[in-house]
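Worked problem 6 (solution included).
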Amino acid sequence: MNEEIFQKALQGASKWELQQIEGLALARKKIPSWAETEGIQWPVRLSMEQCSSEQTARYKASLLQKLPPEDRALLVDATGGFGVDFAFMAPLFQKAVYIEQNAELCRLVQHNLSLLGLSHVTCVEGQAEQVLMSQIPDEGSDICCFIDPARRDSHNRKMVGLKDCTPDVSALVPELLARGVRVMLKLSPMLDITAALRELSGGWAVYVVAVDGECKELLLLSHASGVHAVDISRTGVSDFHPQADSESKKAYARQLSRYLYEPSAAILKAGLQDALPGEKLSPQSHLFTSDEILLDFPGRSFKVERSSGFSKKELKEMTEGLQQANLTVRGFPMSVAQLRKKLRLEEGGDVYLFAATMADRSHVLIKCSKI
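Solution. The predicted structure is:
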């Protein structure tokens, strides 16, 4: 992509033309259906980087699609951006309003929405704090407001607290809820979930969304409850959401069983690890073991080949003939880099080594093959 842009620049292409070349290249991976739509215009690189992927936008739409049709009269996106989330959610509603403070981005999105066949939408230029409430009736139980606040300050530093974001959702949300509006917030996965819920009134469902194992978004949906760890991959969408009254795991494994399980990043961020099947190695390790294969375990699954302590003799026997391995530490007093240096192993290969702490505080090195 950079080579193509460089060559076009040498040929005298305009800044706009270069922006379109780069945007299309990024969209082929991030928003593939838009990349195939002729005439779509692409914003500056920062807007492309900050916008949602098609995968996560479709997931948000699937959440709102569960609402009864009579509860989907109006969608208001208070922080439109490049409009990816808005474009995938808008078809579910009778009417939809897009709000964006950047005039050029607002114009560009309005052009794109018409190409995408969204004739029932309205684009409004302005700041959410100033124009949002004018777009919402005094009572709106059939209205949904989507807010994706900016998570960087004027010095481009990432902000993770609700009051640090723009707009300040902790100030906007109470009035929206008072009008009966259903609210969906898209927040940083770095946010402290417990702290965020303390700042917001009412009941909220929590969705920690990961794509290919990496946490991408934290969604909060009002007028709902429950905590969900969502993993989106090429094979589909998995949603782990234990019942609120599920008992936390109290017993820990006395020894390793035949299989080892590592919870997904979404599970750990959502704090749902204690509701997982299998026996937990220790309070600190967040690894699970069982004698049976847990086919639907939300995370990675391994077959235990052997295990050892950390004496010189045991480590020598464990790593004999081994030149590389995938190392992971869980509740262990060494970093991956320190352990790799100690074991003199390169990264990669088909062997997986987990250094962990058992419930009796003993340290164990577990050699596994991936299932």
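Discussion: The first strand starts at residue 74 and ends at 77.
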